[in-house]
Amino acid sequence: MNYFGDDSSATADIPWLTFDNLAIWDKVLHLGRPIQWSRGTVIRRPGDPARQMFLICTGLIKVCAISRCGLQRTLWLMGPGSLLGEAALFGHKPYQHEILALQESRAYEFSGPEFTQEILTHHPDLSHQLLLNLATKSYISSSGVESSTFLTGSQRVAKLLNGLDVLHKNTEIKISHALMAEILGMHRVTVSNAIRLFKKVGFLDETPQGIRVIDSFGLTNFVESPSSAR
């Protein structure tokens, strides 16, 4: 299910934000500065000041929380059309999380005044996009709390795989067990055991190209079945 309208590829089941209507930003790109990040670039660290926000045009950006002892939890994976840095900018707070480019990525950087005084004032459709971006993150956060409270580890893996299958339009899902565990806040072994079970019962297949969901209906039933929660 798409909770956010036809211009969003995000669902509340997965923390992966992409928006299909990137072209609506073309009219304001002259106000921004094009920027490119190579794979592995640390874009922001906790404590960095927030003076601008970014429109992601290509690539994939990871936003993660890091504990004092070095544990990580991925909060968002952000693709084309998504906005980065709006919470820190409008909240007048420094960045709280580490932001990393997982792929070579391009973006446009807008200063705070450019965004608030020019874009939001004169382009209400882009104000809607900002609100949509924030609403998507809110839904994803609340869904994550609900899942971690009421679902088992295997059910949460199944729910994530179903959401990724919808996002990737039934093609191979190129994601590692380690990244899935980081997204879900689980041990990698727990994720691998769940995937092994789903392969055994015929819900999915795994190849060097990625994970392919074969039986999304079976995964959905597994998530919704009370017996799976025991």
TrEMBL record:
PROSITE patterns: CNMP_BINDING_3 (PS50042)
Matching Pfam families: cNMP_binding (PF00027), HTH_Crp_2 (PF13545)
UniProt entry keywords in alphabetical sequence: DNA-binding, Transcription, Transcription regulation
Domain Cyclic nucleotide-binding: 27-119
SMART domains per UniProt: cNMP
Protein name: Crp/Fnr family transcriptional regulator
Source organism of this protein record: Comamonas nitrativorans
Organism placement in taxonomy: Bacteria, Pseudomonadati, Pseudomonadota, Betaproteobacteria, Burkholderiales
